[in-house]
Amino acid sequence: MELRHLRYFVAVAEDGNMTRAAERLGLQQPPLSQQIKALERELGFELFRRVARGVELTAGGAAFLDDARGILTQVAIAARRASKVAFGMEGSVAVAFSTSAGAHAIVPRLLSAFRNAHPRVTLDIAEGNAAELTDKVARGAVHAAIFRAPVASPAGVVAHPLLEEPMLLVLARSHPLARAAGAVALRALSGEGFILVRRPGAPGMYQNLIEACRNAGFTPRIVAEVERMLTNICLVAAGVGVSLVPASMRGFHPGGVSYHTIRGTPNVVAPMTLAYRAAEANPAALRFIALAKKFAASEKRRQGIRPVAR
Length: 310
Description:
The protein is α/β, with parallel strands linked by helices. The protein is 43% helix and 24% strand. The chain has helices at 3-15, 18-25, 29-43, 59-86, 99-102, 106-117, 130-139, 203-215, 229-237, 283-303; strands at residues 48-51, 54-57, 91-97, 121-127, 144-147, 157-172, 184-185, 193-197, 221-226, 243-246, 257-260, 262-263, 269-277.
């Protein structure tokens, strides 16, 4: 039994006439009659009996009609749903962010824009550092991740630069330099203890800062290495040392720390990177990836954020 047999049967039942049903189906009447007879042979009972103006359902045919309509309806619903999933309008997407990337305004705006454009797509959100998220993307545990600088280049994973922003110096409110007007020179920090994110989590920004300090004439004294940039700020507020964080994090712990631009750090910037598998096939995930790229380009134009050279 094929779906077309059910469609033919329902059409004849609704029209009560083989000729009219054949015209509606775009068939000739003899082939339609043959298909109905073949269906009756398969079922083992007659579906129609002839009457003066055409045909009418038998008791078995009337019972079969409701189920036949139900099957066709379910097939149509399944086809529509599958089409929406195939074109990324339904389904689910697993996305992840690092803590500092999530602090950037682009992330909630991107999530809001995606939800508004694709309300029937479920977003599963995760968090981690760059190393953890790169591994999750490579393993297929998440479809896309946004973090700062790439820490590894596993085969099959694309690291697409979205944006970059300046780094700010973070000082405890009680620090003497916290009262300084204007930018603070990097060399003024030569005697300070630095709090940095561990190398495996953010090696690019870590190394750039080390090199900038050396270019300013000193090797930074590192007093703490942490897993998350938000922890940097907490430790600065506690007086453990000084740190540098992306400008988008300037709103954290405003009562305990102050944020300052710094001179002498041309290469110390905080990038935003989108990671995904080159062979990603999830249609909804591909829509998210495309929207993230488009959204970042729009943000750069709107806010004047300079693009990262590829």
